[in-house]
Design goal:
Elements: H1 2-7, H2 12-19, H3 32-44, H4 48-59
InterPro entries: dGTP_triphosphohydrolase_C, PHydrolase_assoc_dom
Protein name: Phosphohydrolase-associated domain-containing protein
Keywords: Hydrolase
Length: 66
């Protein structure tokens, strides 16, 4: 979903999803490679609880507590 949002940033869902990403990750890189690298940096830096919380916010679903 993040890659789709990077490639199609004008969609309403894409704008919402990209607004969740910290400003330290420059997702407005000119090249697709730069956008992909920033996205991978963002995802690889997530802790498990943060990734689960983000998943819940993106999908509107809840998961059992860990």
């Amino acid at each position: 979903k993040v890659m789709h949002s990077l490639l199609h940033p004008d969609d309403a869902y894409s704008r919402t999803l990209l607004s969740l990403v910290s400003s330290q990750y420059n997702l407005h890189e000119a090249s697709i490679y730069g956008k992909l690298q920033c996205t991978l940096d963002y995802i690889s830096g997530m802790t498990d609880p943060y990734a689960l919380d983000l998943y819940r916010r993106i999908t509107g679903m809840s998961l059992p507590a860990i």
